[in-house]
Design brief:
Helix content of chain B: 25-40%
Strand content of chain B: 15-25%
Structural class of chain B: alpha/beta
Strand content of chain A: under 5%
Number of strands of chain B: 20
CATH class of chain A: Mainly Alpha
Helix content of chain A: over 70%
Strand order of the largest sheet of chain B: 6-7-8-3-9-10
Number of helices of chain A: 10
CATH architecture of chain A: Orthogonal Bundle
Radius of gyration of chain B: 25 Å
Oligomer: heterodimer
CATH topology of chain A: MetI-like fold
Chain lengths: ~280, ~575
């Protein structure tokens, strides 16, 4: 029935041009992340002091920074790192959160209550501070940004999956699966999880935008990605020093890249809600 | 006033969907006099609810009246402005819906909700409105109306919620009440009480009522005139007695035939020309061989109980026995424990006490959590109530039927499996070309067939049916019942038929067990039990079932009037 799904998607996109634009934006981001480093005009790390702090021009589309590095090339190259951090962090919290939440929602009882309280405690912390503490404790590396971002995201996925599974645990087809010889374990993995995935995919898309901001935020305050690696958060942090002297392009372009990426993911998330909601199908 | 209260002339309603325009109502003409009760019957998709919604202007945004007029007191309400209509709404016409709980605001006390309805049309103080609300609660015969004023909808039973809805609907003395399946989710006894109440209130206040229902028996019992709709068209209109005794239109004939009555047999559920086909099929079935002496009973349940931490036990003491190929009905009102019992016998939940012997072997001690590994798993299968909820939305019909074969019969994906699934589908009358479809692409009847095909796929010996036809139209129900009966004869399959529909149980089951509050009240051979109930409770259940050709409305309402408050479930 792949063609039916495709038709449905096309139908929704036609009614929601904004979602189509967002989807195109996300595809573009992914293409840039894959092919960007091989097509940029300049080496993003090579400095050229004679060209330092040049405003946007035909040669340097987004100007250059204090070391004369081409901001546009750095922006394009940074896409891959930012997307990889965001996608892997969201992926980890999604997989763990969905499985933990689904089992808690299905089993109920003591396990559910214990996990529920643990999640409550985690959510009571200011999340960004928690992430900062984790990166500081684990060491200032990219993989630790991923881990920290994944962990502070986990409670939302656990709760989401728990709630979605909980309402379905006594529905006819779950009982039918058990009557058909399925163990509780495989009912959760093979029956319930696939059914809550669409709703969670929406959550993931919205969450990706947030994860990009979070990673950039950590880099901005000096945790995680270190210079000279191009990354949007660091670029904003470094550029901020020059904004008072009118060198606006150092902050504006990475900021714009962040904003557009987050916007695309969020708009896509909203559109996916319509695409995946079975009530929208006839 | 002269002329009819409501006059619908050549009404057309069209919905715009993604597949283009769909005509839901195509030229309905009917009229209603003051104080009259009109039944609007038909199956799902016949346009009966849409007609009601169009009259109250509650059509979904996608729906539009494309032609025709709706004259209410001589005024065309399809033409007047929204603001003018709002005055009519509630004050001159109001509506009650199928699911009363969903129609009430869950976070507001019912007394306040009734007062809100009064205040939106009359200028009076809040105290006066509360006083008026109390009077209305008395009028709908709620026990302890003073206490119920402050109750929230979740604290009331379904029947009580529907009474509150009626109180709201009549709060401003409307001249027209449209009741859209007002008792569909309720027990038969509750249904009777609510309908009797509705009829009396309508009579007292001279209110005209349109009763929209799929239940012919209900319309026959309470309406003075019945209109039958099919695919947006009005096919027949007459007094209930003439309509149901001598239906003229082919569709009405089919509908009447498919509605089970106190005396009908399974073969009666189709029209005359189809019956011979069914009887020929029955004759072809070889008679059941008598069980060899010493064969243990197929199912022997003793002193089964299920208790939860809080509240009274769901099942207190349940015992029954059945032989292979037998069919036993399990009836009772909601909350009687019949669903819990069926789940325990299916070994989907664990009993707190008691023994379950299947084929002489105890299966009750094995925890439900591990029962999927038991060799008996494939011998006990279940068909679930709501076909819409019983199929995994991400499985095709093929996957659904193949699932138990893969898990329980040890089959592997391949041609053999495909043939077996196709054979199962064919046995339940599901065309093979529907197998690749997902549940949302199937109709209710088709989904029910997939559910039955799945349950019989690995050739069980006991099939538990949990209200298998409650969500189906009567004509589909008739086909499904015949199918189940045929499977029982062909496979020597024992059926445990859990239902609140006594007419269906009487037809389908050799024996019937009546449950109340988790205990067996009465059991015995079905016909004898229903014709001559030994306990007051069973009699109450049997009497509450509306029949085609039953007593007419006014008489029924008067006879049962004073006894209304005695009905336990309210």
């Amino acid at each position: 029935m792949a063609s039916a799904t495709l038709r449905h998607t096309v139908w929704i996109l036609r009614g929601n041009p904004l979602t189509a634009v967002a989807a195109a934006g996300v595809v573009l981001l992914i293409l840039i992340a894959i092919f960007g480093p091989s097509i940029v005009p300049y080496d993003p790390i090579a400095s050229n002091v004679s060209q330092a702090l040049a405003p946007p021009s035909a040669a340097h589309l987004a100007g250059t920074d204090q070391l004369g590095r081409d901001t546009f090339s750095r922006l394009v190259v940074a896409t891959r790192l930012d997307l990889v951090i965001a996608v892997s962090a969201v992926g980890i919290s999604f997989v763990l959160g969905a499985v933990i939440g689904a089992f808690c929602g299905y089993a109920g009882g003591r396990l559910d209550r214990a996990v529920g309280r643990f999640v409550d405690v985690m959510m009571a912390f200011p999340l960004f501070v928690l992430a900062m503490a984790m990166v500081a404790a684990l060491g200032n590396r990219v993989e630790n940004i991923v881990i920290a971002t994944a962990i502070i995201n986990l409670p939302f996925y656990i709760r989401f999956a728990r709630a979605e599974v909980n309402v379905r645990r006594n529905v006819g087809w779950v009982e039918a699966a058990r009557a058909g010889g399925e163990s509780n374990f495989s009912v959760v993995l093979r029956f319930l999880l696939p059914n809550v995935l669409p709703a969670m995919a929406v959550q993931m898309s919205l969450n990706l935008g947030w994860a990009i901001l979070n990673a950039a935020g950590l880099s901005f305050i000096g945790l995680g990605v270190r210079p000279p690696t191009p990354e949007w958060g660091i670029m904003v942090a470094e550029g901020a020093r020059f904004i008072s002297t009118g060198k606006w392009w150092l902050v504006a372009f990475p900021g714009l890249a962040l904003m557009l990426a987050v916007l695309c993911f969020n708009l896509l998330g909203d559109g996916m809600r319509d695409i995946l909601d079975p009530r929208m199908r006839t | 006033m002269t002329g009819p209260l409501l006059q619908i002339e050549d009404l057309h309603v069209t919905f715009s969907t993604r597949r283009g325009l769909v005509e839901a109502v195509r030229g309905v003409t009917l009229s209603l006099d003051q104080g009259e009760m009109l039944g609007l019957v038909g199956e799902s998709g016949s346009g009966k609810s849409v007609t009601g919604f169009a009259t109250t202007r509650l059509l979904d945004v996608a729906g539009r009246v494309t032609a025709g007029r709706i004259l209410f007191r001589g005024q065309d309400i399809t033409k007047i402005a929204d603001s003018d209509f709002r005055v009519l709404h509630g004050a001159a016409m109001s509506m009650i819906f199928q699911n009363p709980r969903a129609a009430l605001n869950p976070i507001r006390a019912v007394g306040l909700q009734i007062a809100d309805a009064i205040l939106s049309h009359k200028r009076m103080s809040k105290e006066d409105a509360a006083e008026e609300a109390l009077k209305l609660l008395r009028a709908v015969q709620i026990r302890d109306p003073e206490k119920r004023m402050t109750a929230y909808p979740h604290e009331l039973s379904g029947g009580m919620c529907q009474r509150v809805m009626i109180a709201i609907a009549i709060s401003c003395n409307p001249m027209l009440l449209i009741a859209d399946e007002p008792t569909t989710g309720l027990d038969v006894t509750t249904q009777k009480v609510v309908m009797d109440l509705l009829v009396r209130i309508a009579a007292d206040r001279g209110m005209a009522t349109i009763l929209i229902t799929h239940d012919l028996g209900l319309a026959a019992r309470y309406c003075q005139r019945v209109v039958v709709m099919e695919q947006g068209r009005l096919v027949e209109e007459a007094a209930p007695q003439t309509l149901f005794r001598h239906p003229r239109h082919a569709y009405t004939r089919r509908l009447v035939a498919a509605s089970p009555t106190a005396t009908s047999r399974i073969a009666d559920l189709v029209t005359d020309d189809e019956r011979s086909h069914y009887l020929a099929m029955l004759a072809a079935c070889k008679p059941r061989p008598a069980p060899a002496a010493g064969t243990p009973l197929l199912l022997d349940v003793k002193n089964l109980a299920k208790r939860y931490d809080q509240g009274p036990p769901a099942v207190a003491d349940f015992s029954m026995a059945m032989a292979a190929g037998e069919s036993v009905g399990l009836v009772g009102e909601s909350g009687s424990g019949k669903t819990t019992t069926s789940r325990m016998i299916c070994r989907l939940i664990d009993p707190s006490e008691g023994t379950i012997l299947f084929d002489g072997e105890s299966i009750g001690h094995l925890p439900a959590r591990d029962f999927h590994r038991s060799p008996v798993r494939k011998d006990i299968q279940i068909v679930f109530q709501d076909p819409n909820e019983s199929l995994n939305p991400r499985f095709t019909a093929f996957d659904c039927i193949a699932h138990p074969l893969l898990r329980l019969s040890g089959m592997r994906p391949g041609d053999v499996l495909r043939q077996r699934v196709e054979q199962c589908a064919q046995r339940v009358g599901l065309p093979a070309e529907l197998l690749p479809r997902f549940p949302h692409q199937l109709s209710g009847g088709q989904k029910a067939r997939v559910g039955i095909a799945r349950a019989i796929a690995c050739q069980p010996r006991l099939l538990v049916l949990d209200e298998p036809t409650a969500a189906l139209d009567v004509s589909v129900q008739a086909v499904v019942l015949q199918l189940l009966d045929r499977l029982r004869r062909e496979d020597d399959l024992a059926l445990l038929f859990v239902s609140h529909d006594l007419n269906v149980v009487r037809m389908m089951c050799d024996r019937t067990i009546v449950l109340r509050n988790g205990c067996v009240v009465e059991q015995g051979e079905s016909r004898a039990l229903f014709d001559n109930p030994q306990t007051a409770y069973t009699r109450e259940l049997v009497d509450a079932v509306p029949h085609i050709g039953g007593a007419p409305a006014a008489a029924a309402a008067q006879v049962t009037g004073p006894g209304v408050n005695n009905v336990r479930s309210l």
